[in-house]
Write a structure and sequence with these properties.
Radius of gyration: 21 Å
Bound molecules: adenosine monophosphate, glycine
Helix content: 25-40%
Number of domains: 4
Largest sheet: 5 strands, parallel
Low-confidence stretches: none
Distance between the termini: 41 Å
CATH class of the largest domain: Alpha Beta
């Protein structure tokens, strides 16, 4: 059967790599893909924004299943458009994806479903938001309601910072329409973990827990990024606790959506904060897998991902069990000079190596140039992911192999996994 992966980052390379291992999959396509997916799949030059063209292409090419990587096409309604064309797609509808693209909606659902989260309020008036902030005091968190590519959250240490964040989002509109409404909430303390699951509307099939490192620089310093590395498992939230997460978070949220007439089918990601006493609160939901968490989850996953996702689309997820490697996995991201602010592209990437089942350099911002060389496209360029008998062994493996690779302006953190 033929599979289409929508997206072109490291997460999509990892999904394509895993889907291709299924004995049921004859061909993997990626739209638009990158230089890494080009080596294992066929890249299709259609933008994930162009939903109609994608659906027509998928129908003409008899795609059995489409798997969507990033949130933007889901928020635009990709799953709805594909359904209209009679195509099978693993990803939530536009209405269900609101869990990610409206922080206010997610808060409302959590509150109704009894899911623990930060206490807060939602505002569409800057003056009212500021009044609430003055009343509560700092530290406090200000979030743009809509999609903002990870840049819509300000964790303000002072009152001035929080008030400035309101002006930035609501008055200067630095995030466009995403900042027309803001959520203001208490700052939670603790350590973060990523809990992801495959959902078919009723059944929730959890994946193992991972932890990503969002700050650009060592010591959790510098600006927030999409993620500079990840490890799984993590002592912050052991894998054995995931069943409790399903009970306390995923099932109540899916039921609350269902009560409103919305069936959630797709990956669901809960970013959680675990406080020093062990209490778990939800920071956010994503309607997709994490990047770079997916790169390590795909290495640890021993079961056939394609069969699991197809079962979910067909509403049979309760028949599926996922097997995970007892080994740990870790990945380290290499980004380009200037990330996350500027784009520095066209640098030749040297030292790329043949992947194995235990070590893969998953590409993100890469493309092939006219001479057949792999060059950078800016942003996060690649992530070397590796298995090991422990997190520390997996990290050693990832770092040793990352150091074989070089490009002008290459940056990576040297302390991934060292502070969990
Ligand atoms: P979000 O997009 O909501 O996950 O926010 C991005 C990042 O901001 C999270 O991964 C946290 O590091 C931080 N963050 C968000 N909400 C809070 C909160 N209520 N308390 C502390 N940190 C937060
Ligand atoms: N790595 C965090 C995310 O994908 O949202």
């Amino acid at each position: 059967m033929k599979v289409l992966v929508v997206g072109g980052g490291g997460r999509e390379h990892a999904l394509a790599w895993k889907l291709k291992q299924s004995p049921k999959v004859t061909q993997v396509y990626c739209a638009p893909g990158n230089a890494g997916t080009a080596q294992i799949a066929t890249n299709i030059d259609i933008s994930p924004k162009n939903l109609g063209a994608l659906a027509v292409w998928a129908a003409e090419n008899k795609i059995a299943l489409t798997v969507v990587g990033p949130e933007a096409p889901l928020a635009d309604g990709l799953a709805d458009v594909f359904a209209e064309h009679g195509l099978k797609v693993f990803g939530p509808t536009k209405e269900a994806a609101r869990l990610e693209y409206s922080k206010n909606f997610a808060k409302e659902i959590m509150l109704k479903a009894g899911v623990r989260t930060a206490e807060g309020a939602c505002f569409d008036s800057a003056e009212e938001a500021k009044e609430y902030i003055r009343e509560k005091g700092a530290p406090i968190v200000v979030k743009a309601d809509g999609l903002a590519s990870g840049k819509g959250v300000i964790v303000a240490q002072t009152l001035e910072e929080a008030l400035a964040a309101v002006d930035e989002f609501m008055v200067e509109q630095t995030m466009g329409d995403a900042g027309n409404t803001v959520v203001v909430e208490e700052k939670l303390e603790g350590k973060e973990a990523s809990v992801m699951a495959i959902v078919d509307g009723e059944t929730v099939l959890p994946m193992v827990v991972s932890q990503d490192y969002k700050r650009l620089l060592d010591g959790d310093d510098g600006p927030n990024t999409g993620g500079m590395g990840a490890v799984s498992p993590t002592s912050v939230l052991p894998d054995e606790k995931v069943a409790q997460m399903v009970e306390d978070i995923f099932i109540p949220v899916i039921r609350e959506l269902w009560a409103r007439g919305t069936r959630y089918t797709g990956f669901l990601y809960a970013g959680v904060m675990i406080d020093p006493a062990g209490a778990v609160r939800v920071l956010e939901f994503n309607c997709r897998l994490g990047d770079p968490e997916t790169q390590i989850l795909m290495l640890r996953l021993q079961s056939d991902l394609f069969s699991a996702l197809l079962a979910a689309v067909n509403g049979n997820l309760e028949t599926v069990e996922l097997k995970w490697s007892k080994d740990a996995a870790a990945c380290v991201v290499a980004s380009s000079r200037g990330y996350p602010k500027q784009v520095d592209d066209g640098k030749v990437i040297e030292g790329l190596f043949e992947p194995s089942e235990r070590i893969v350099a998953f590409h993100a911002g890469t493309r092939g140039d006219e001479d057949g060389k792999v060059v950078s496209k800016g942003g996060r360029i690649l992530a070397v992911a590796a298995l090991g008998s422990s997190v520390s062994a997996a990290l050693d493996n990832a770092y040793a192999n990352l150091k074989r690779i070089s490009f002008d302006g290459m940056h990576f953190r040297s302390d991934i996994g060292r502070n969990s």
